[in-house]
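Worked example

This section walks through a single chain of length 82. The input is the sequence exactly as stored; nothing has been trimmed or padded.
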Amino acid sequence: MALIDRECVRRLLQSEQPDATLVFVQGDCVVLPADEVDDAHKRLVIVRRDEIASRVPEGPLTEEALEELATRLDNIARDLGA
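Given that input, the structure is written out below as tokens.
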């Protein structure tokens, strides 16, 4: 079962927060502004939106692009031991 899925990536990319950050908290992915990530969760930060901007294709975001990003981010989450 994936830790990070397309909906989680979609929430990150569509967040109105300029510093949107994807964090894995208690078994769930959560999108928070960077300044709301406390010390206890800093090691569970998966990615900030600005870090993946170059991987987001121009134009409409397809389900395939979301799936590819979700797979990459899921691997990062697993490497962090989430």
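What to look for: Helices lie at 6-14, 49-52, 63-79.
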